[in-house]
Specification:
Layout: E1 6-12, E2 15-18, E3 24-27, E4 30-36, H1 42-53, E5 61-66, E6 69-76, H2 79-88, E7 94-100, H3 102-108, H4 146-149, H5 169-176, E8 189-190, H6 193-207, E9 211-216, E10 220-225, E11 233-238, E12 245-251, H7 269-282, H8 288-299, H9 305-320, H10 323-328, H11 330-340, E13 345-350, E14 356-362, H12 364-373, E15 377-384, E16 392-399, E17 405-413, H13 418-432, E18 438-442, H14 448-456, E19 460-464, H15 466-477, H16 483-498, H17 502-515, H18 517-525, H19 550-559, H20 564-587, H21 596-609, E20 613-617, E21 626-630, E22 634-638, E23 643-644, H22 648-652, H23 657-665, H24 680-686, H25 697-702, H26 758-762
Parallel strand pairs: 1-7, 15-18, 18-19
Antiparallel strand pairs: 1-4, 2-3, 5-6, 5-7, 8-12, 9-10, 10-11, 11-12, 13-14, 14-17, 15-16, 16-17, 20-21, 21-22, 22-23
Helix pairs in contact: 7-9, 8-9, 12-24, 13-14, 15-16, 16-17, 17-18, 21-23
Pfam family, one: SWIM
Keywords: Metal-binding, Zinc, Zinc-finger
Protein name: Transposase MuDR plant
């Protein structure tokens, strides 16, 4: 399949002109249009440009604007950059590419804004150190300048010394000269003081001087050159009746020795983060490895992986808002959820020191849908949050008639404990207010075994998650048996769990016992009443694992790095879209009684029933409700109790082939005996309500306003911050995967091979 073409408007020979608002325009020169796509190589593209413009492709520099951003130029220096540009411009009609020969690049660089990787919000101003060698950055020197970025500066922003130096003057020119026009003079406007401080920082580096703040608050910033007696000054304040910041006074004259290079060029993780944040915004998957390579190439600063990863975290926070501030916004955020979605539950708890403890969310649309058309079946599970403050998400999901995921409630807690599960279940019970007996498919560890009967008492059935049981069985027994033996034990364990009749269940147990009495004892002690289909008293509809909500966990994994309010709102948006999509889909279904998937299942059973023979009511039947059905086996169907001794009818909610043979024999419709939860009507009732947007979530995050009087102040939880480096994710293995143990071919023992066998060494 051909890739989409993008028209590259290639311009050269002109010059960049900076407008008053900081945007950039390209004036003069020649232009050519070239079709490009993902299959176009950078070498071929440069060769065609060299032929059109008449200069060597080896010395040219390529730059382009991101759509809608005329202030930032991206440098294309390698084939990966070229592919990114094509990919990013795929939805646009064209992309402007500026072709600069080497000499023109040096001449025009002072008129260009910072490249994407050079935008910064750090407010300290220092001068680069220029010397020979490579830049080496000590890991402990990537310091936290969060307070500086937020404007909480000391009287003098003197830079802290760092144990690295700039190695290449060319890099210094590239990183510094492009910022010469970051400050243009009186009447220049900025969107915020942070943006002004950012421009001032770049300007000072480009012009080779340091500065200190005379005044630095939310109303006015006044700065002077740090050199004694130098008249350079600048003052900026808020433009009356607007939120804009305007330069009111500026004396651009320096009498100090600005060309003198001073020590202490500080590369904090905040500085690097602010440099890469625009590129991270355009490319969310910007990898730490690529960050380190780009910083090295653009600025001559060498970062290791951990430093680049930390810088990415800072950049993400600058883009998404403060994690700390998100917690302080929780009270108003919960209130907005309840206002925009009446009937919803959004509550939180804090500890005695006002630090965040836990948050529970259940939207009215989910609550109503569960009551109106959902089976009394819930899956309880947890998902780790690898966010800045970590934590765990507790989730209750249900299956719709098509076995699609239907999130009912979720909570953010500090850890998975019995106390947190009890709190979650108490709020879930209050939200649902459902009189039905609910079957919970859940783990039996981490407090759930105790929490469920404590909250729901006799109004529930607890079906143990088969995956967790199998994992525990494997962990407890793998040291005693070979890989092959464990595989047979697990296969028989699954057979026992899925068996619908007691005979098959006990047969599987005997198979386990023949392999190992210890394994048999383990299975008996694991309370089969809670996991074996043949013994379980509730209705789990053949759902054996609590990890039903895989789609919801993928939503969590996409949003868990966001601040807490944005993460919850992202999940809300996913839920809103999911409900709307299924509303639309169900309206397009062909008119049937059951949903499409269940229609297929029922018709399959109807086909099987045609080969079966039904006898007269069973001789033991008191009310003529028991029938004998003959096929490959003889089965007894109790039509009045909607039961068959094969147990599939009770297990699935749809009549089995034996039951359908009886139903047709008594001249009734199979649809009369299907569970109402599988009807199109119930499905549409589940998705009848919609989830409404919660307005101004991002604005709340960026707001500087303190909490209103009377509103609880929430601070981040006192948990361990995310460790440096790549987050370690737990890999979930398939149910049938067992790690093979070493087995010695000499003594048949486990845990070693023939080469290290002690028995062989004794011979």
């Amino acid at each position: 399949m051909a890739t989409k073409k993008v028209i590259a408007i290639c311009q050269s020979g002109g010059e960049f002109v900076t407008n008053k608002d900081g945007s950039l325009a390209y004036s003069g020169g020649d232009a050519y249009a070239i079709d490009i796509d993902q299959d176009t190589s950078m070498t071929d593209f440069k060769s065609e440009l060299a032929e059109n413009f008449g200069f060597s492709w080896e010395t040219m520099t390529l730059k382009y604007f991101l759509p809608g951003n005329k202030k930032t130029l991206i440098t294309i220096s390698k084939d990966k950059d070229f592919k990114r540009m094509v990919s990013f411009s795929a939805d646009a009609a064209n992309v402007e590419i500026f072709v600069l020969p080497e000499e023109a690049d040096a001449r025009n660089v002072s008129n260009m804004p910072a490249s994407r990787s050079s935008r910064t919000t750090a407010s300290e101003a220092v001068v680069p150190v220029v010397s020979a060698g490579d830049i080496v950055v000590g890991d402990d020197m990537i310091t936290n300048d969060f307070q500086i970025e937020m404007g909480m500066l000391p009287e003098e922003s003197s830079p802290l010394p760092c144990n690295f130096v700039l190695t290449d003057e060319k890099h210094h020119i590239k990183a510094a000269q492009q910022w010469e026009n970051a400050i243009t003079g009186v009447d220049q406007r900025f969107n915020s003081f942070t943006e002004f401080r950012d421009a001032l920082h770049k300007y000072s580096i480009a012009h080779g001087f340091t500065y200190k703040y005379k005044k630095n608050d939310s109303h006015r910033v006044s700065v002077k050159c740090k050199a004694q007696g130098c008249p350079w000054r600048i003052t900026a304040s808020r433009l009356s009746t607007t939120q804009l910041i305007c330069i009111k006074k500026m004396n651009p004259r320096h009498t100090c020795e600005r060309a003198v290079v001073k020590a202490g060029y500080r590369a904090s993780r905040g500085w690097v983060g602010s440099i890469i944040k625009e590129k991270l915004k355009a490319f969310p998957d910007y990898k730490p490895k690529d960050i380190a390579e780009d910083i090295k190439r653009e600025y001559g600063i060498q970062l290791n992986y951990s430093q680049a990863w930390r810088a990415k975290e800072i950049a993400r926070e600058q883009l998404q808002g403060s994690y700390k501030k998100a917690y302080s916004q929780l009270p108003s955020f919960c209130e907005k959820i309840r206002e925009t979605n009446p009937g919803s539950i959004a509550i939180f708890m804090t500890k005695e020191d006002s630090s965040f403890h836990r948050l529970f969310i259940s939207f009215y649309a989910s609550i109503s849908g569960f009551r109106q058309g959902c089976r009394p079946l819930l899956f309880l599970d947890s998902a780790d949050l690898n966010s800045k403050y970590q934590g765990v998400m507790l989730v209750a999901t249900a299956p719709d008639a098509e076995d699609g995921i239907y999130p009912v409630a979720f909570a953010v807690v500090d850890s998975e404990t019995e106390d947190n599960w009890v709190w979650f279940l108490e709020n879930l019970k209050l939200a649902l207010a459902d009189s039905r007996t609910i079957t919970f498919v859940a783990d039996f560890q981490n407090g759930l075994k105790t929490a469920l009967p404590l909250v729901f008492e006799k109004q529930h059935h607890h079906a143990y998650c088969l995956r967790h049981l199998a994992e525990k069985l494997n962990m407890d027994l793998k040291a005693q048996f070979s890989h092959e033996a464990i595989r047979f034990i697990l296969n028989d364990f699954y057979a026992a769990a899925y068996a619908t009749q007691p005979e098959a269940y006990y047969r599987s147990l005997e198979n386990i016992k023949s392999i190992s009495p210890d394994a048999y004892a383990w299975v008996i002690e694991s309370e089969p009443l809670h996991w074996a289909n043949a013994l379980f008293e509730g209705e789990r509809y053949n759902h054996m694992n609590s990890t039903f909500g895989v789609d919801f966990y993928s939503w969590v994994s996409e949003a868990h790095e966001l601040p807490i309010t944005q993460m919850i709102d992202e999940l809300r948006a996913k839920l809103m879209q999911s409900i709307y999509t299924r509303q639309v889909q169900s309206r397009e279904w062909v008119v049937t009684t059951l949903t499409p998937t269940n229609e297929v299942k029922l018709h399959k059973e109807i086909e099987l029933a045609r080969s079966l023979q039904v006898s007269a009511p069973h001789v033991s039947a008191t009310h003529n409700s028991l029938f004998e059905v003959h096929g490959e086996s003889i089965n007894i169907v109790d039509i009045s109790q909607c039961d068959c001794d094969c147990k599939l009818w009770r297990l699935t909610g749809l009549p089995c082939s034996h039951a359908i043979a009886v139903i047709e024999c008594i001249q009734k419709s199979p649809y009369e005996y299907c569970s109402s939860y599988f009807t199109v009507e119930s499905y549409r009732l589940m998705y009848a309500e919609s989830i409404n947007p919660v307005p101004n979530t991002t604005t709340m995050m960026m707001s500087e306003e303190p909490p209103s009087d009377g509103v609880v102040s929430v601070t981040p939880p006192p948990t361990r911050l995310t460790p440096p480096g790549r987050p370690k994710s737990k890999q979930v293995e398939p149910l049938d995967m067992v790690k093979r143990q070493l087995q010695c071919s000499n003594c048949k023992g486990l845990g070693h091979n023939k080469k290290t066998c002690k028995a062989l060494a004794l011979v």
